[in-house]
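Worked example

This section walks through a single chain of length 402. The input is the sequence exactly as stored; nothing has been trimmed or padded.
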Amino acid sequence: MKNNRFRKDMMKNASESKLSKERLQQRLKEEFQHAMGGVPTWAETSKRKTSSEDESEEDEDDLLHRTGNFLSTSSSLPRGILKMKNCQHANAERPTTAQISSVQFHPCAQVVMVAGLDNAFSLFQVDGKTNPKIQSIYLEKFPIFKACFSANGEQVLATSTHSKVLYVYDMLAGKLIPVHQVRGLKERIVRSFEVSPDGSFLLINGIAGYSHLLSMKTKELIGSMKINGTVSASTFTSDSKKIYTYSGDGEVYVWDVNSRRCLNRFVDEGSLRGLSIATSRNGQYVACGSGCGVVNIYNQDSCLQETNPKPIKAVMNLVTGVTSLAFNPASEILAVASEKMKEAVRLVHLPSCTVFSNFPVVKKKNISHVHSMDFSPRGGYFALGNEKGKALMYRLHHYSDF
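Given that input, the structure is written out below as tokens.
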């Protein structure tokens, strides 16, 4: 208990120099519940409880009822004001001044990854208080353009701003594997890529309108798809069966993954220059971010079937090019951001397509230029990385789980 971390967070009084294993376990549990805002649903057990357990739980429920807990009673997220609080920066234990190019939550563990132009990516345990660092991996002369977890969370993939090497970090083996040359891939630089939600495929956005589909397991080329113009952004559907490619000319192409055949093609309404695209986890929405700051939200069915689909809503709260889009896991929030302007980030409520009025807090001006965003696997946390080297993190009270 003399360790600084325990002394600060868990000591109830100065005379407490030792804790039994059971007491420590209980304190850690309390700390976790405090950070999460209650017991996550995955931690609840369905076993039969003894009468003493029942009584203690009743006391706990009564306490929560009296003190007020921020576990939501409403199943769907209300519009208007989003209840949230600032947490410690995700990367506070490894400060940097270099731009954060990627911030992403681990798909299974309570961990966040932060990567940037300082040639490194780091993993942090998310507790909302100190976010202790797990490890940092340094890649020599390799300013990271994008870093991303594999779908099962066992690997980290990283590309650079000026290299054709794709680094694969095997977290279980602790090995860093450089993929120098993919046979048949004639690209001088490998930068922008996407991982399919089912973990089978890796999609690399190339030059001259090409997108290359690789096997995630072997990192070998399966086939390529070509559009007119340049590829600005691409994304998989939540079932990994289709790919949306957004062109620099504002056109959207829909591809079948198995046949690499174009299923549909349409012009994003009012867009002269495409920049970013995202699909929702529930398969309902497609969002397209254009160079003029407009985000068009479409019904995904209309994108698959119509040659001239009309957006459900055009979100016009940004005035510079929309460079980042992210849906939360429940498909109730769409985060939109532009790296061209300070504080240019908004959270859009779905399905009302209205912007939450209390984010960002204009007076504070602590967000700066946003380069990357992500929601935790069950929506409890939201993180964004800026050009000042900070990975800002927020706790969203509506969602009880990480």
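What to look for: Residues 47-53, 55-73 have pLDDT under 50 and may be disordered.
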